[in-house]
């Protein structure tokens, strides 16, 4: 049973380009969370999605950032017109059909490291 | 909303017991408390989870007082390989967000 898969593991973009980060949750998991970790800092909540629904996006910047988790395929975190301050590690986590804060753990991927030149 | 806070760093020596406390005074009634370990350039790894009182597994114990506004991760007999950052993770009261604590950087010395 494969774990949470994130790709690309490393992504380099120039300022103004778009970055797309993908997350395939564990099999049978329908809840996905995205976190951002700036260099030498902690993990900051960005967004919580269930399939075809954004449940809580209060941690995402209002502009340039969007997330989706379609019925089929991976969850995607999209950053438009990247700036240097977007350079960070972006971690995805998944949990089974119940919300993780009720019971159960989050299973994390190894992250996607975005570098903006 | 109150932050979920932890000491910034702790030092220990091999073979000692380490206790790391997390303050989460906004935890909701139904929320579990989970602890994760993170090595550089890796994703967080699950250590232990609990709801109340004490939970023990093969690597750690978790102590949760009756009011559940804090929790303490206990690592018995740490080794050099336990050098990492440790995070607590709790729900943010009455929301669906899961919030990490500020993280504790544990350095284990020989």
Could you outline the blueprint of secondary structure elements for this entry?
The complex is a heterodimer of chains A (117) and B (110).
Chain A (H helix, E strand, L loop, with lengths): L4 E3 L2 E4 L5 E6 L6 E7 L5 E8 L2 E4 L8 E4 L6 E5 L8 E8 L11 E2 L3 E5 L1
Parallel strand pairs in A: 2-11
Antiparallel strand pairs in A: 1-3, 3-8, 4-5, 4-9, 5-6, 7-8, 9-10, 9-11
Chain B lengths: L8 E5 L4 E6 L9 E6 L6 E6 L2 E4 L4 E4 L5 E6 L8 E8 L6 E3 L3 E6 L1
Parallel strand pairs in B: 1-10
Antiparallel strand pairs in B: 2-7, 3-4, 3-8, 5-6, 6-7, 8-9, 8-10
Brief summary:
With 117 residues, chain A is mostly beta strands.
What does this structure look like?
The complex is a heterodimer of chains A (117) and B (110). Chain A has strands at residues 5-7, 10-13, 19-24, 31-37, 43-50, 53-56, 65-68, 75-79, 88-95, 107-108, 112-116. Chain A is mostly beta strands and 117 residues long. In chain A, the strands form 2 sheets. In chain A, strands 2, 4, 5, 6, 9, 10 and 11 form a 7-stranded mixed β-sheet that branches. In chain A, a hairpin with a 5-residue loop joins strand 4 and strand 5. Chain A is globular and about 40 Å long. Chain B is an all-beta fold and 110 residues long. Helices cover 0% and strands 49% of the residues of chain B. Chain B is built from no helices and 10 strands. In chain B, strands 1, 3, 4, 8, 9 and 10 form a 6-stranded mixed β-sheet that branches. Chain B has a 4-stranded antiparallel β-sheet with strand order 2-7-6-5, with no helix packed on it. Chains A and B meet through strand 5, strand 9 and strand 10 of A and strand 3, strand 4, strand 8 and strand 9 of B.
């Amino acid at each position: 049973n494969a774990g949470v898969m994130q790709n690309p593991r490393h992504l380099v973009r120039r300022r103004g380009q778009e970055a797309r980060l993908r997350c395939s949750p564990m099999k049978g998991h329908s809840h996905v969370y995205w976190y951002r970790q700036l260099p030498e800092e902690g993990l900051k909540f960005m967004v919580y999605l269930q399939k075809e629904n954004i449940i809580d996006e209060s941690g995402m910047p209002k502009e340039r950032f969007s997330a989706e988790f379609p019925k089929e395929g991976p969850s995607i975190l999209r950053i438009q017109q990247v700036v240097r301050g977007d350079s960070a590690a972006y971690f995805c986590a998944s949990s089974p059909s119940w919300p993780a804060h009720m019971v159960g753990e989050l299973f994390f991927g190894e992250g996607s490291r975005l570098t903006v030149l | 909303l109150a932050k979920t806070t932890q000491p910034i760093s702790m030092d220990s020596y091999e073979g000692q017991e380490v206790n790391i406390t997390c303050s989460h005074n906004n935890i909701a009634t139904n929320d579990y408390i989970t602890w994760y370990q993170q090595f550089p350039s890796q994703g967080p790894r699950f250590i232990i989870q609990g709801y109340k009182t004490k939970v023990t597994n093969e690597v750690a114990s978790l102590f949760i007082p009756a009011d559940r506004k804090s929790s303490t991760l206990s690592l018995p007999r740490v080794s050099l390989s336990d050098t990492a950052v440790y995070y607590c993770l709790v729900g943010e009261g009455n929301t669906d967000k899961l919030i990490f604590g500020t993280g504790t950087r544990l350095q284990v010395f020989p």
